[in-house]
Design brief:
The protein is of the alpha/beta class. The protein has one domain: Putative cyclase (Glucose Oxidase, domain 1). 13% of the residues lie in helices and 22% in strands. The strands form 2 sheets. It has an 8-stranded mixed beta sheet with strand order 9-1-7-6-4-2-8-10, with helices on one face. The chain has a two-stranded parallel sheet with strand order 3-5. Helix 2 runs parallel beside helix 3. It is globular, with a radius of gyration of 15 Å.
Amino acid sequence: MIANTGTYLDTPAHRWADGADLTGTPLDRLADLPGVVVRVPVGTRAVDRLLLAPYEVAGRAVLLHTGWDAHFGTDRYGGPEAPYLTRDGARALVDAGAALVGIDSINIDDMSPAARGERPAHSALLAAGVPIVEHLTGLDALPPTGFRFTAAPPRVAGMGTFPVRAFATIDA
């Protein structure tokens, strides 16, 4: 089964053979998480530690709103200029205790030829047990904080990634 389809979740088993799969990833890392939207300035490709510094991320779903979802369905969406989270940015989110990280881009890592296929954001986040959600849309409709985020896949043993129906509920 091809599980990297649409909006999907990566668990530690996606990157690490001994990492938790869909059955081993705790529900409290996937459902009803307090959220924070990081608004990335237009034209910024590399989301780094400095851009993330102003945000309180401990125990939260950190959603990177780059605006790249506007290109979904076009050749540009999968192109080498897609925004991504840097190694340093991923390490900052792990160190600060983020519960989950999502992005509205094709991949949380740099997909340009210069990246040589390395996946430092995947590696850092998943090694720390922080699930990743890719291909998010509609983050522009969320407030910066004051919402709860859910991206829970079915519990399928042996799968490290799976499509999700990601959604947020605004706090009353």
